Amino acid sequence: MKRILTLFIFSIVALTAAAQGAIKQSIIIDPTTFRPVQTGPLTGVIVDQIGLDLSRRPCARIKIFFHQMTREQMEQLVAVYPSGSIQGTKCKVAEGNTVLILEMTAKPATKFYLTHPKFGTSNEVEFNLEGNKEYQLEATLNKQLTINIASNVTGASVYINDEFRGTTVAPNNICTIADLFQGTYNLRLEYGDRKSESKIEVIDGSNIYFRLDIDETAPVYQYLVLNTTPKSALVEIDGKSVQRKSGKIEVRLTKGVHMYRISADNYYTLSDTVMIDGSRRRIKDVALKPQFGYLKVNHNNEFDGAEVYVNNRMRGTLPLEKPISIKSGEAEIRIVKNLYHDFNTTVNIYDDQTTTINAELKPNFAEVTIVTEDNSEIWIDDQKYGTGKWKGRLEIGNYTVICKKESHEEHHSLLNVPTTESITQNYGALKPIYGSLDISCNIDGAKFYIDGVEKGTLPYIDNAVLIGNRQVKITAPGYRDYNESVIVEKGKTATVSAELKKGSTYYSSSSYNSHSSTQSNGASKSTSYGYKDRSHMLQFGIGIEYAFGSKTSAICMPLEFRIGRIDQFVNGFIGANFVYRANKFSSKTSDDGVDVGSLMLSPVAKLRFNTKRSDDFAVFYDIGGIYNLVRNTTYNEIDIESKPNFSALFSVGCGFSLMDLYVYGTYDITNAYRGIESPDVDIDMEHPFLNNRFTLGLGLKIYLGSGFMKR
To answer: What is residue 648's predicted lDDT score, i.e. its pLDDT?
Structure first.
């Protein structure tokens, strides 16, 4: 009796839903699918021919493929031609499928539509048809039907062709689906881990009620998803900890009541129950109540950089980017900054509330000014603070102040800063430290300078010269200036014995390689090494060279720029050689061989090392490289294939005021010739290098500019 009553109620509900959810009946012909199926007139067996209409005019055939309509429903379709000039000769359903075949008079702008006794009329379409041709078209029964799915459980998930369409709802456990076309569908119900499946046929006018039950004897499962705040909280369900998967809690539970517990540091623990009813999935958001509050610190800009400690742990520096989170309860706050007394207070922090304090730091420093009489350096506790005068803040306490100045005794004193009141401390001049300096030269009355200050004429001795490195300069008309660096030590006499020479300025090499030696009397003496002429740092040279080997001879014209002076150990050269080279190759027809000439332009780079130097003479050796860039080699008016090559260079020679004489050697590191391809050339290819790899040469070079080679 109960089942009959349920069925009766369901039928009323279903019929009402069908009446409310029905869509207007119509047939849709899609004109965009219209296309011919052959390019020429239709040919074939007699039964496939397209006939003529009653007026003996050619006809065309249209095959309409129908969707969402049964064969029986298609057999009731009728084609209607609004124009009286068009005659329809056939309207039938093809054997074995749902294809409607129409044949009609073939004319341009042929119009027709379809009508059905139950579904009404279709839209009107218009096509240009040619006689004895076949066309295709698609149409659809555009009617959506409403069905009702009933089950024995509430909350079962309903799937149509694997697509979720809803759940069965109380009180009758029915799920209504209102947008299905005619056709066969796969129906599936899921409830926890249990499910049932069935095929259903949805046809207009058929039963719109379907029932599918779930086996209630099997266990029912459901997925529970917990979103916790904070996300790192520990989750326990039924006394067991749950591990997160991809950052979230997702666990499968059986139908019934389950207990969960969520806890996190600085949050109140939450324990509660959750009801699992067997539906597909349940998502629950759980936010724990904070067991912490916030601390905000207001302060003056003067206290920027101060460190903020909470319960003896540093939590940031002022200004704070945002309030500090602190566990609820009593908290000890300390703010620390150099030169200020610590700020200490105790505050109460309340759940999810912000507590604000005003930081007031009391100064623990004084404004201190230190002035020295002789512009000496000021050092406080081994750190340099300034020169001559310094003004700044010092924390209350005692400090060691040292005044320093070159060639003077240091002054050490104790500075006491007792209160926050300003202090000014003055220090007198430092005591100088002296040594003795004895200067003489071979020219009486020569002027001399110490550290750039003219002192008088020679000879000279001074027993009160500040210690340290002193620069001595001696000048006399017609003589080279004498310059020397001498070290004066406390209680010792440093001597300078100069020998002035006629000519340009004399420089003591101690300005480049200075050293001192101690005499028998304990005095410090600086030694000089020679003269330097700072002119002619860049000079141009031109020369001629002759090189020879067993198969090679060459005449070269070097053009070079020299960078540096002869008194320097290293000079640099860059330039180019214009070379005419004669190569003697072995020949198949001549015992004397074949002479082949070549013209080359060769960039050169090398370093010169000067040794055994005097005023007008030096012995040198060069190391460098030559790149033979251009080579034009011919024999009997035939070009010999060649390529640029690289050669190493070494030379030894003597340098004079304006001239170099030297011997040199070259070695070809890379191949100079590729070979001779022409069969008309009778030169033997006995080895890969047709010329000598190693040559020797003599050279003469003249420099433009006076005195370049002089020391």
So the answer is: 93
